UniProtKB/TrEMBL annotation:
It comes from Tetraodon nigroviridis. This is Negative elongation factor complex member B. GO terms for cellular component: NELF complex. It holds the Pfam family COBRA1. Residues 574-588 have a biased composition (Low complexity). InterPro entries: COBRA1. One of its GO terms (biological process) is negative regulation of transcription elongation by RNA polymerase II. Residues 555-588 are annotated as: Disordered.
Length: 588
């Protein structure tokens, strides 16, 4: 406990023990020890007996003086470090040399740690001692740990790894949230709110102003994105940069070539729209990538691969297409639309670019603009014609039914092109917001076969289930249920547990609206498989199914009283209109 005192020429317990062992008069030896090792203040000696008269132990007095001196010293260390004297750090280094031998003494340790914290460059020997001792490493300030981490990537990786895992768990939990709604979706929180998350704040603190640590975190994110294809790592890459931007950490922001692009895109994400002015700014950044600096495209593609950026781009594309329709203009004639497609394509190609290390913008397939978008717009026109016809007097309506098939180009591009597929999926949300049941029934079956099964990804299913709540009353129709469940969702639920969970999430919210015959069939189909029948189901799946079962049971218990009244009414109606006396007595 008192290791290190002898090195400083201060007596410890072992010295007192030796003195008492070898002395002839123990009381005199104790007095002498107290005189030599007590507070060396002549005027204090005459005052100490007064404390004895008040029953105050000498230990308590010395401890209170020690605590006060320690606090004053720690404050003084901070003042020296914040000062402007040229020799301020040499003073702290001198103090560190004197105090470091006592670093393991609990009462002195805070002073040593305070000095270490305020030294911009701790002597390497001291850093190695702190790093090698788990207890010292644990209690040292993050400012000291940064100096250890920058030369020890493996140790830094061990510290960062749990945070990155936590971040992914939180994002995936948000996608499976029990809140199934358009108003409270995965994309509802603003960028600034998201940056207040625990993981982002901790990583920002760990990095501080250290460019080397920032580069290490970016490398971890690239590696994990490459290994897992998980797009949430792209979100974290953008959030981390903007968190440092919020704190005005110019040491890092000024050297990250993606900073201004990310800052501009962040403003677009906040508005959920890329306006003309910002579109030109973003285009300027992309066009400004110089020869020899193409590697920047890898980071820019990661930032555009962030689901929040992708969401903003596709929403902007949908809005742009609506404007083109109203102006009778072609997609290829809109520079803003072409830029949005260019950025969407760059984001969608992020994994391929980082994997291949070929830093070149992917070429957008011209047919996406010349074939797919016109095909999608023709579907919009079909809807508009049908809507207008419904408002006409009956004698002016045509006999043509609502179209059920889609253009061949629409099916083909959904299957073969990821940029087209992304736009096709977002068109589903557009028609759901309009509560367009006919268009939804026409389009949903086409999603069974999409590029890389994008329609069965968590982000799309999270948004789809939320948007379907806008058509909750339609679930009372068996035809509508057949299209939503049999025609799309149930086609892959047995092989994809995430689809199974999203269906249950939606039914927990909408079960009372679903046609009873369909609900009964769905409950049998959606029962989690038991181990003896196949792969064991996860706990979240079982919990969702149990929750749905309980809600249905509660609904059954509350419904009989409501159902009995109309059945009694039917009975009375048959009695009150007798055709003959015999019939009346028979009914009675």
């Amino acid at each position: 406990m008192f290791a290190g005192l002898p090195e400083l020429g201060i007596s410890n317990g072992d010295d007192l023990k030796e003195t008492l062992t070898n002395c002839a008069e123990p009381l005199k030896a104790i007095d002498q020890f107290q005189m030599e090792n007590g507070i060396l203040l002549p005027t204090l000696q005459s005052a100490l007996p007064f404390l004895d008269l008040h029953g105050t132990p000498r230990l308590e007095f010395h401890q209170s003086v020690f605590d006060e001196l320690r606090e004053n010293l720690m404050e003084r260390v901070a003042v020296i470090a914040e000062g402007k004297e040229a020799d301020r750090y040499s003073k702290l280094e001198e103090l560190l040399e004197k105090s470091f031998p006592l670093v393991k003494m609990p009462s002195i340790q805070p002073v040593v740690m305070q000095v270490l914290k305020h030294l911009p460059k701790v002597p390497e020997k001291k850093l190695k001692i702190v790093m090698a001792d788990k207890e010292l490493y644990k209690v040292c300030a993050v400012e000291v740990k940064r100096q250890i981490w920058q030369d020890n990537q493996a140790l830094f990786g061990d510290e960062v790894s749990p945070l990155l895992k936590q971040y992914i768990v939180e994002k995936e939990a948000a996608l499976f949230s029990s809140d199934v709604s358009v108003l409270h979706s995965f994309f509802s929180p603003s960028p600034k709110t998201r940056r207040q998350g625990e993981v982002v704040l901790k990583l920002t603190q760990m990095i501080g102003k250290n460019v080397k640590l920032y580069d290490m975190v970016l490398q971890f994110l690239r590696t994990l994105f490459l290994r897992t294809r998980n797009v949430h790592y792209c979100t974290l890459r953008a959030e981390l940069l903007m968190s440092l931007h919020d704190l005005d950490i110019t040491e890092i922001c000024s050297v990250d070539p993606c900073h201004k692009f990310t800052w501009c895109l962040d403003a677009c994400i906040r508005e959920k729209f890329v306006d003309g002015k910002r579109a030109r700014e973003l285009q300027g950044f992309l066009d400004g990538v110089k020869k020899g600096q193409e590697q920047v495209l890898g980071d820019l593609s990661m930032i555009l691969c962030d689901p929040f950026a992708c969401n903003t781009l596709v929403l902007s594309i949908m809005r742009n297409l609506q404007e083109l329709l109203s102006q009778d203009a072609l997609p290829r004639d809109s520079p803003d639309l072409m830029l949005l497609l260019r950025m969407l394509s760059l984001g969608q190609g992020a994994w391929d670019m980082i994997d291949s290390q070929v830093f070149k913008e992917p070429r957008l397939d011209k047919e996406v603009v010349t074939c797919f978008l016109p095909a999608m717009m023709s579907v919009v026109v079909d809807d508009n014609i049908f809507t207008v016809e419904q408002k006409l007097p009956s004698e002016e309506k045509s006999s043509q039914a609502y179209p059920t098939l889609l253009p061949d180009a629409f099916y083909r591009f959904l299957r073969e092109n990821r940029v087209a597929c992304e736009m096709g999926l977002y068109y589903i949300f557009h028609i759901a917001k309009l509560r367009n049941k006919n268009a939804l029934q026409r389009l949903l079956p086409a999603l069974v076969d999409t590029y890389n099964d994008m329609a069965f990804g968590d982000i799309f299913l999270h948004l789809l289930t939320g948007h379907l709540t806008l058509l909750s009353d339609e679930f009372g129709s068996e035809d509508f249920c057949s299209v939503v469940f049999d025609g799309f969702l149930l086609t892959s639920f047995s092989s994809k547990e995430n689809v199974h969970r999203h269906i249950l999430r939606m039914l927990v919210h909408l079960h009372h609206k679903v046609a009873p015959s369909c609900m009964e069939s769905l409950m049998k189909t959606l029962e989690p498989p038991k181990q003896r029948l196949g792969p064991q189901s996860s706990e979240p799946l079982k919990e969702l199914y149990t929750k749905l079962t309980e809600k249905l049971e509660a609904q059954k218990k509350s419904s009989p009283a409501v159902e009995e009244t109309p059945s009694l009414d039917l009975g009375l109606h048959t009695v009150t209109v007798p055709t003959s006396t015999g019939t009346g007595s028979t009914s009675t």
